[in-house]
Amino acid sequence: MEYFNALVVILDSTIRLSIPLLLACLAGLYSERAGVFDIGLEGKMLAGAFAAGAAAAVYGSAWYGLGAAILVSGFLALVHGFASITHRGNQIVSGVAINFIAAGSTIILGQAWFSQGGRTPSLGADSRFGAITLPFAEAARDIPIVGYIYYELISGHSIIAYFAFFMVFATWWVLFRTRFGLRMRAVGENPSAVDTAGISVTWLRYRAVLITGALCGFAGSYLALTQNAGFVKDMTAGRGFIALAALIFAKWRPVPAMFACLLFGFLDALAIRLQGTPLPLVGRVPVQFFQALPYVLTVILLAGFIGKAIPPRAGGVPYVKER
Amino acid sequence: MSTPYARLPAWADYGLIPVINLIVAFAVAGLVVLLVGENPFRAAAIMVEGAFGSGRNIAYTLYYSTSFIFTGLAVAVAFHGGLFNIGGEGQAYIGGLGVALVCLTFDSILPWWLTFPLAIIGAAAVGAAWALVPAYLQAKRGSHIVITTIMFNFIAASLMVYLLVGPLKPQGSMAPQTRTFLEGGQLPKLNWLMESFGFAVRSSPFNISFLLALVCAFLVWLLIWRTRLGYEIRTQGFSPKAARYAGIGEARIIIITMMISGALAGMMALNPVMGDQNRLQLDFVTGAGFVGIAVALMGRSHPAGIVPAAILFGMLYQGGAELAFEMPSISRDMIVIIQGLVILFAGALEHMFRPSIQALFASISPRSAGVVAAKREGA
Fold first, then answer.
1. What was the pLDDT predicted at A307?
2. What's the longest Cα–Cα distance across chain A?
3. What residue intervals traverse the membrane (chain A) (predicted)?
């Protein structure tokens, strides 16, 4: 029973750690499926987290925080779109630029506005997205196994967490069951075919990029308003890139994306849990090993040893109409 | 594919447009300063004063520039081959390992002028090796080099933390760093050079690896524009199809280009590790690998552009440190914003002002524009 409880606790923190990854991963999915590579997920998430922390601190409401995060992250997504869709610039370069602009400006503005060394003020319970206790969770707590799982694992997350899992299936539905999704996938594979059909490549890609921005805003809000009580500088700490890795791991599909993010979240949770405790057979595993594992796994996947990840065909290529 | 825009005179193409892009980047950075509630012109004045105000300041500026020349060249070489090496940060970090291992082994036996060449080889070899895996995967397995080099940055960071808190740390020490190198592992400073120009320098980390950086810049120029290999690299970057048609081995060029790029990035470690701190510390690269991207874009991947661009960023680093003293609300992170804006305007939005400049040229003298300049398509 003790092991079972420990396992449930690890799985619970797995979910908590994988939510920002999942949201950022789904965000990247829209953009990349539409043929716009986005390595600026990290920057958009960071800017979103800062906006969320700052707005929630000033207005005292988590919803204002979420709104501000979506706006700021959406604005950066538009900058990315402007550079890579309208001006047909290099999408990688544009993404790198956004990461730096976000990393620098969150610290500078945070210091100038709140003077707390780049942090935003610590938030009270009512200006954060707190845990939601699902119905009957308290009552079911004492039922062995099933009730405990329901209480500990399924109940007690914030609204953004439930939204993230909802978005997995919403994304699947949008992508594979709607006209917009079909066109978006088409524009990522063969934009000239879409153009020939009389549909605007530019407008389709802009819409995809805007969805990316909004979802990164959610991811940032989760970091600043649920996982922490406010913004801390560099709080994304490479999660945007892990999300990118998860996206490749999932071969740009929503449901596998969820499992990839849960896997990477699990590695993270395990690393925290196992810190310093020796494992049977292998002895003490350094924490850095677990930290590097998502990246190593992605490289191995990319090398083609675990199936083959084929990106959308028109990804990274700006669309030029025939002249 | 036809050229989308009309032809401009060379001076406008290589001089005017980059300068305009740069001015816009700095203007937006000025807006951020304004948003923080400070005077951007005063901030700029403090920065310039801080970077060039005294011999010591100039020496610091050049010390930072040294690192950026190496990483800028690394990114530029890869650019010429049509590859985006975003992993300069990791290659430089791991390059420090090569430097440290050489220094820790030989610093008590050999004088610095014998350790130095060995350390150069060590840094270059380790940096190149770290770039080899992504290069191989791109060349043979078709996995995207941008993604793999990003992953390798993180793997390098984890590996170095592991080594510095574990095997490389001297016994009984708490700080995550190696022991300090002895005399044989320390590069001589170049302060005498500054003093010979009449500047008083008391102490600065400005060291001999600056000269090595200049030599490397020359060698890169020689390689890219004066050798057969360089021609092949440029062909591969300009048109992979043409390269294949001409019988240039694609995989070979990708791997060689990335290894040269990685070696240059790795050599950046000489400057801080052997030239200044004399020990291997955590995070000694401090973003220099990424600054290399901005430097290469600004310098248009040509050594003659990269050296001044590196000095400009060295100026921003050193001036930014002084600025943080004078205006406490503006920390050194301002540089990161400027860096991002330069990458945005000189890289991704490189062509934003081109049509209007072409229109301007065409209206001044219609003959200077080859094709009808106002012809813009798509949008």
1. 65
2. 71
3. 6-29, 66-85, 92-114, 159-176, 208-225, 231-250, 257-276, 288-306
Please compute the mean of the pLDDT values over residues A169-180 and round it to a whole number. Answer: 94
A237 touches chain B (CB under 8 A): no
* Residue that is written with structure tokens 């014998």 in the block: B114
Cα four-point dihedral sign B166, B171, B175, B179: negative
Of B2, B143, B154, the CB nearest to A238: B154
In the structure, what pLDDT confidence band is assigned to residue B373 with cuts at 50, 70 and 90? very low
Task: Report A:83-102 residues touching B (Cβ under 8 A).
Answer: 83-84, 86-94, 96-102
**Tokens coding B32:** 């951020």
Interface contact B2-A323, CB threshold 8 A: yes
Domain that holds residue A48: 2-237
Confidence of residue B12 (pLDDT cuts 50, 70, 90): confident
Residues of A in contact with B3 (CB under 8 A): none
Q: Within B184-227, where are the H helices?
A: 191-196, 209-226
User: Could you list the residue range(s) of the whole structural domain that residue B131 is in?
Assistant: 55-322
Mutation target to probe the A interface, by most A beta carbons within 10 A, among B336, B338, B353, B356 is B336
Is this complex's ipTM strictly greater than 0.90?
no
Query: Which residues in chain A are closer than 8 Å to B142, comparing Cβ atoms?
Result: 304
> Is A157 within a domain?
yes
Hey, what amino acid is at A103? A
Q: How confident is the model at residue B365 (pLDDT cuts 50, 70, 90)?
A: low
A202-to-A82, B5, B230, B268, B351 alpha-carbon distances in Å = 10, 20, 37, 41, 18
Task: Select the highest-mean-pLDDT range: B180-184, B200-204, B248-252.
Answer: B248-252
CATH assignment of the domain containing B156: 1.10.3470
Q: Is B3 on the interface with A (CB under 8 A)?
A: no
**Cβ–Cβ below 8 Å for B330 and A108:** yes
CA angle (B110 as vertex; B105, B114 as ends), nearest 5: 105
Distance (Å) from the alpha carbon of B357 to chain A's nearest alpha carbon: 15
pLDDT at position A323: 54
Number of folded domains in chain B? 1
Which residues in chain B have Cβ-Cβ distances shorter than 8 Å to A111? 329, 331
For the purposes of burial, counting CB atoms within 10 Å of the CB of B30, is it exposed (0-12), middle (13-18) or buried (19 or more)?
middle
DSSP-assigned beta bridge partners for residue B177:
B281
Query: How far apart (Å, rounded) are the C-alpha atoms in residues A3 and A11?
Result: 12
Nearest to B162 among A104, A107, A288 (CB): A288
Q: Is residue A267 predicted with pLDDT exceeding 80?
A: yes
Domain contains B367: no
Total domains present in chain A: 1
* Residue A51 belongs to a domain: yes
Average pLDDT over residues B232-252: 91
Q: Is residue B379 predicted with pLDDT exceeding 50?
A: no
B347 domain residue, yes or no:
no
- Residue B150 forms part of a structural domain: yes
Among B5, B83, B151, pick the best mutation site for testing chain A contact (most A Cβ within 10 A). B151
Residue B123, in any domain of the structure: yes
Alpha carbon distance, N-terminus to C-terminus of chain A: 70
